[in-house]
Specification:
With 273 residues, the chain is mainly beta. It has 1 helix and 18 strands. 41% of the residues are buried.
Amino acid sequence: MMATGPLASAALEAPPVAVEKTIVLYDGKTVNDLSKFYVWLGPKGHEDTNCVFTVVDRIDGAPAIRASGQELGGIVTRDSYSSYRLVAEFRWGNVTWEPRLNLGRKSGILLHCQGADGNFKPTFDSPWTLSIEFEIFDGRTGDAVLVPGYRSRDGADRIFPRATMRTLPGSDYWNPEGTPRERIAGKGRLYWLAKDSDWKDVPGFRGKNDVEKPSGEWNVLEAVVDGGNLTYFVNGTKVMELTNCSLTYGRILFQSEAAEVFFRRIELHPLGH
């Protein structure tokens, strides 16, 4: 089954599902099954006329979800979740699109998506929704982005997520030895532990301490989410920790953002497993 069909407004506000045993959102084995998700493509809404999201038969010998990057948007879980360990595998493809045709490849996973789809804009037709992002980006995988959103279409009620991150003085890099500081959406990006100081926005960039694998290889992402406390891992290395986030539950969105990317083995595990 393809990823289609909007959620009713009541479902958008439903309480989070308890992750008491492993929930397989995509198993990396089944062809053409995205039944746990629906599509959201900003101004086009739920209509994926260009097949931005598909399941391809064989990438490195097995099925995988393909996000083409041709349009901005995502596949979104039909349920909300609060406490879980997300495990997802990804690798880059070769195709890029304007406006990032010759820039670093970019995607991401939006955690704790809340409210109506597209509420990053008061017109509710943005590709993005109020959330906390686990950035996937050449040389920057593991960054965190606090994504604001509107609660109503009159533009009067805008929510700016907050989170606490340890940093050293004058730095926007997460550092476990740093001082806890509250961060707010729109006040700069939150960089992963070892983002290269010479980072360049070019395809395939890898810094001297990057833990993301070379292009064409599969990477394992983990997000340990305990309500308002989020910890990111890339290929087993802890790269980011946020605490006391103002968003504590929500849907999960896997992005298409001007670069071809493949996902497989998307699972939610109970905390501690």
